[in-house]
Amino acid sequence: MARVLVFMVADGELDADRRGVRDLLSGLSDLYLDRGVDLKVVDWDPHEPDPEVREGNRRLMEGCDLCVFLFLTRVDPQVADELERLIGLTRERGEHGRPGRPYVATWFRDPPDGEVTPGLERLRSRLSDGYGHFWNKYPHVDSLKLGMVLLLVRCLDTGAGVEIRGDGDGTAVYLDGRRLDIDLNDVASYRGYRRIRELDDRYRDCDLEYRSLREEYRHDRDDDELRDRYARVASEHASLLRELERAYEDYLRLLNDIAAVNDGGRPLSARLTDAYHALQDGDTDRALEILDLEAITADAEHDASAYRAEQAAAELHTRLAEKHKDNLRDRVAELLARDSALWSKPDTPANREQRLRVLKAAADLELKFRLGVIAQSHLARYYYDQEDYDQLVSVLTRVPDLERLVRENPDHRNRDLALGLGALANLYWDVDRIDEAAKAYEAAIRLDRELGRCNPDPWDRFLADNLCSLTVLYEHAGRFDEAENVYKESIELCRERAQQHPNDCPDVWGSALIICLKDLAYLYYRTGRYEEAKREWTEALRLAELCSRPDRDLIKDITEQLRLLDDER
Length: 569
Known about the structure:
The chain is an alpha/beta fold and 569 residues long. The protein has 24 helices and eight strands.
């Protein structure tokens, strides 16, 4: 097991901040322990009276992974000497222009009255001018916590990373699915991010209207005007939520850029240093102006670095292409929402013609720009319902290679793709294209697993549904060994979730586990493996009888199967 040491060094002025960060990082130790990383956070006292302990700690710091120094208004000379010694040590250990370990991160909290001692001011100047070391600013301990978590993730290089989820008052920071004790309202850079504030305000207003219309629509589904209005607002609601999620990702990308320069691997221009400090102070508009791509490209040309200029141009091209794709995805979502509204109206020739135009437009956009498969699955389903099998086959023939499509649609866009693949798999099965259905289910299951690592609910339920469908498909195709393996994965998933959610067990995971055991027993029975069939049916019967609300029909069915099995033997 790998051991990772993090040293915290702070003057008595910042004891509360040091304890807050230490407790936050120490609380993550069990999370990283599951990944084979033993994370330890240690406080360093430069005035330790025992010289052997003091020297032992200095040697540990030389071999640790991350050293964090916090300052407010003053600096202890011994702390300053140790900080500069460690920075020099990382330079000596570095290779190919990159520093060695430990990473040395310095954080300066804004003093209450703006005054600092001359010694601290001189230290800050030496760090910038003498060592090319980037030092961080923070006005509140929650800004420090967020920055430190990002730096720790970069240092450990394991797990899925940091996310911001939710909207409005429910917004929070998560690491690998765990909510962290960080109040974003106290993080200056987050408060100052105008795009998030504006989107959040728009989303709140839209959310109120969406909830109100949804309630009205539940009670009056025959009002065409209400239905169309609800469809438009629902589409806007989903679009705003996606925009808000992208804004969170862009914001975290900026903070990750700051975490990346904390290792001291590349000297920063004065312009970039100014931009990052402005961001940490909450002046995000000014920071974004400085970080404008044209300014970065101009810096690259000024430095006579053709590589950086090409890199900046490629980044601009990628950014524009992604923005274009996101706009197209929003357009596809709007068209599908319009089709949903039309589908709920009476099935007339004019209505079918309008639906077909809408679905074709959505599917053509999706296919041309390789955005996913959900619109194509909707169009194919339309042809299936109309019994137009020639057109149905034409749509299915044009579906892109699924493996390549998954690679081209990373990150949050996997959610729509996973749902689309599941729908496509069901359609393939309906038209008896078993091999294509299996491939689509397998691709959907891979995405469900990936999404479920960070957000088990609802993706574990989608995973369970797709696993169940795949087992039945394999059995139908006579692929019994593959069906058995998928049944076992389903059973393991259901057992794990039933233990984690005991209150849901009678209705969700417990009953799903019983069904999986029963179906696996029947597979064993069909293939002549009677002892294994009896074992699984017996376990299913035991669990069914333990449920707080037993399903009497299910218990009767399993009991009858066991009786028939005993009679045959």
